[in-house]
Amino acid sequence: MAVSSKTSTYLLLSLAPLFWAGNVVIGRAMRDDIPPVAMNFWRWVIAGIILLPLALPELRTQWPVIRRNWRLLTVFGLIGIALFNTLSYIGLQWTTATNAALLNSTIPVMVAVASWLVLREPLSARQILGIGISLVGVLTILLQGSVARLLTLSFNQGDLILLLAMALWAFYTLLLRRKPEELSAVGFLGAMVYFGLPPLALAYAAELATGADFALVPSTAAALGYYGVFPSILAFLCFNHGVAAVGAARGSLFIHLFPVYTVVLSSAVLGESPRLYHFAGIALVLLGIWLTTAARRVPRAVAGEL
């Protein structure tokens, strides 16, 4: 049963970046059709409506808990709902997808280092090696197997905005340890959405004031529908549960699967054929994840028992 539980947890952690990769691929296809803040606002409005019948009963029952933790839940909503995705969509207006994926791969490193410095989570030599190998796999994919490409990368304002978004997500991952125990995964996500939507609505109003808008046609409606269900609800539930079960340092490592899934989905949806370096990078990512997650003993501090 313990093995089955661990396998299920790792499966959930593997699904979260898959849903986020789909978000990127669809977002790339729709980047000229929906403004960035509008994309994030309607994404969470749809998610909030879907969550309402599931989360509302618990939010009513646990209202004293929510009222007692409203400051913490506001921070979760600001980071996880309003800021991270909005900053990511805005940053992609100026930078390339390659730079964005490279910056995304820094999250597990940020989380692991911060966990060690702030939470004193121990990192074994095997875990450090696994993180390093998976990061090399990501770089192999992003640099297309050529170290010389590293010299051609340049950073602009979009890169800096994305770097800020990744730092916020690393902070969010660590902060999950302080999630109120009384709230279930659905209740917690619902609270995050409803605390995060008001500031996001203000940002959307500011975007509308600039004249940015979009037409609601079948393609944009389908894209927003995907955003509202898979990367918003299912991915968050999978990621939050996985981090709670195995700890921030290990759970965040599965974010390395994001560029792997992106390569596969881009080939299938956008017609971008994979190359040899893609398969080499994927192999290294999977090896790194195995080294990090196959440790014989998970310390209590890493297990993230809430």
Give helix and strand order, one letter per element, not per position.
Answer: HHHHHHHHHHHHHH
**Separate helix tally:** 14
The number of domains is 1
Radius of gyration: 19 Å
Question: Portion of residues in helices?
Answer: over 70%
User: Distance N terminus to C terminus?
Assistant: 21 Å
**Mean pLDDT over the residues:** 82
Tell me the number of strands: 0
List segments where confidence is low: pLDDT < 50 over at least 5 consecutive residues.
Answer: 296-306
Structure report:
With 306 residues, the protein is mostly helical. The protein has one domain (2-124, 150-249). It is 76% helix and 0% strand. It contains 14 helices and no strands. The longest helix has 29 residues, at 218-246. The model is unreliable at 296-306 (pLDDT under 50).
Salient structural properties:
306 residues, 0% strand
In short:
The chain is mostly helical and 306 residues long. Helix content is 76%, strand content 0%. The chain contains 14 helices and no strands.
Set down the secondary structure blueprint.
Elements: H1 2-29, H2 36-61, H3 63-68, H4 70-91, H5 97-104, H6 107-118, H7 125-142, H8 157-175, H9 185-209, H10 218-246, H11 248-253, H12 257-269, H13 276-293, H14 300-303
Helix pairs in contact: 1-10, 1-12, 2-4, 2-9, 2-10, 4-8, 4-9, 5-8, 6-8, 7-13
